[in-house]
Amino acid sequence: MPNTDPQKSALFQKVAETLKQQGFTIDKEDPTRPWGGFFVIDEAQAQEFANTYFGGLLVDSLRISGRLSPKILVVAPHQRLSWQYHHRRAEIWQVVQGPVGVATSETDEQGEVKSLQVGERIILRQGERHRLVGLKDWGILAEIWQHTDADNPSDEDDIVRVQDDFGR
């Protein structure tokens, strides 16, 4: 599905340019998600990504199964990602542009949406239910996937959707 929203297109172009200026290699870019989209950064750059977006957090302390996958999430105003969880990863999110809304829960019952400001971080455990919510303006988050299964690393198919506004 082509991206026909000029504001979204301009923002994705700006994020891509910023990442390249910071020296990051974009392995994959997907601006077609109904809630926004994402950029996947070269896994070999995980420490540089953590230095830039997570205040120098040491990636060695984050490794669960040895692999980490850095990403940038872009969420549109008033859109929600699915209420979801993962079998093969934990995640760490850092708000780069916001505020954004985040809901978490240990059960399938969605908790309250809390507002996270620029610079705030949230750690999501494997299996923890979560949802990212766009508020008044576009939100941007830096994300690191912590793969929990060395033999079967997480991917975009490792999403269990409890509820989804887009019928996926």
From TrEMBL:
A Pfam family recorded for this sequence: MannoseP_isomer
Presence of keyword Coiled coil: no
Keywords annotated in UniProt: Isomerase
Keyword Isomerase attached: yes
GO molecular-function terms, A-Z: isomerase activity
Mannose-6-phosphate isomerase type II C-terminal domain boundaries: 60-164
Record protein name field: Phosphoheptose isomerase
